[in-house]
TrEMBL record:
This is Glycosyl hydrolase. It comes from Hymenobacter glacieicola. One of its GO terms (molecular function) is hydrolase activity. Signal peptide: none annotated. InterPro entries: Glyco_trans_9, LPS_LOS_Heptosyltrfase.
Length: 354
């Protein structure tokens, strides 16, 4: 049987589809599993041994439809369920099933703070779309396969103090209301009191530099050196470092590609992350996660899957959630969902968790 899985974005959502891909390949007799997505995710999907072929939306939808029609699929598992995938399925004209996005239930929670969402992780809702093919959850969690060429050699890539073990902190997120303010990241890093590798894309490099500079200044026992402050309402002056063992920062933002960042996550003692793709990659490696939530909420069903985790959030805030995705600034202007989080941490032992 030839099966097409549809999910065009984003990296976190695609990582969350990996149990579906694996179960289709292993549980459907003779399954050939293809995956259609955007070109930016090819490098993550192609190393997956449960995917036989990756198709990318590089031009028009018409061109992709022509490519997919030539494959003569028997069944389509739609894990995106939007207008684009509806048009694609209609033109392919084969049997299909889609996962329920529960948008109206999310709308009730965002608009009226009425929670009717089932207490079911999105992975299990994804798997329901494959149920017509007899697929069941195998309980093995998420997958992420790093090509050998992208495995990071810590002795070559990181300063010596980080080679003995570190915490990975994914400081980025697509929307500002899903990211801690810079001074709160500095505060949280100070509480970790051990080497911390900051992870993110090129867009996070300047924020990482400010964080790194704050700890460099503290280590030198001098006032914080002047830094270029981002033009953002979410920047505030750095807070003093906490007493005790020193936190040391390495700013890896923008220095590594996605697979290499995943390798750094895999080799970390544990992971601190906003509600973003690297959080789900950490779950794929069964890392312990401190998961930071701002304007979105774990009740949407996208908390870390099948790994140990702890939620850092402001429970009971009446304006939260204000969106199922996020904003570039707080609609209320106070940003209490991130400003008021209590960093009460029960840290794992400082051992090398690789």
């Amino acid at each position: 049987m030839k099966i097409l899985v549809l999910r065009f974005s984003s990296i976190g959502d695609i990582v969350l589809t990996t149990p579906v891909v694996r179960c289709l390949k292993l549980q459907v007799p003779g399954a050939q599993v293809h995956f259609a997505t955007k070109p930016g995710f090819r490098s993550f999907l192609e190393p997956n041994p449960y995917i036989d072929k990756v198709h990318c939306l590089t031009g028009s939808l018409r061109e992709l439809v022509a490519e997919l029609k030539a494959e003569q699929f028997d069944f389509v598992v739609d894990l995106h369920h939007n207008l684009r995938t509806a048009l694609l399925k209609a033109q392919l004209g084969v049997k299909s099933a889609s996962f329920d996005k529960l948008n109206w239930r999310k709308w009730l929670l965002v608009r009226f703070k009425v929670n009717t969402l089932p207490r079911v992780h999105i992975v299990d809702r994804y798997l329901e779309a494959a149920a017509p093919l007899g697929v069941k959850n195998d309980g093995q969690g998420l997958d992420y396969f790093i090509p050998a060429a992208d495995e990071v050699n810590l002795s070559a890539a990181l300063p010596p103090i980080f080679q003995r073990g570190y915490v990975a902190f994914a400081i980025g997120a697509q929307h500002a209301t899903k990211r801690l303010p810079v001074e709160r990241i500095i505060e949280l890093c100070g509480l970790l009191r051990q080497p911390v590798v900051l992870l993110g894309g090129p867009e996070d490099e300047s924020t990482g530099h400010i964080i790194e500079l704050a700890f460099d200044s503290q280590a030198a026992s001098s006032p914080p050196a002047p830094a270029r402050i981002p033009d953002s309402p979410y920047y505030f002056p750095p807070l003093p470092a906490s007493p005790g063992p020193a936190t040391v920062i390495y700013n890896a933002c923008g220095k590594f590609n996605l697979n290499q960042s995943a390798s750094l996550v895999r080799q970390a003692r544990f992971v601190v992350s906003h509600d973003t793709g690297l959080m789900h990659i950490a779950a794929a490696f069964r890392k312990e996660i401190f998961s930071v939530w701002g304007n979105t909420v774990p009740e949407f069903g996208m908390y870390p899957y099948r790994t140990e985790f702890r939620i850092l959030e402001v429970p009971g805030l009446p304006c939260r959630p204000c969106s199922k995705i996020g904003y570039e600034k707080c609609p209320q202007g106070h940003f209490r969902c991130m400003r008021d989080i209590s960093f009460t941490l029960d840290l794992p032992p400082a051992r090398d968790g690789r």
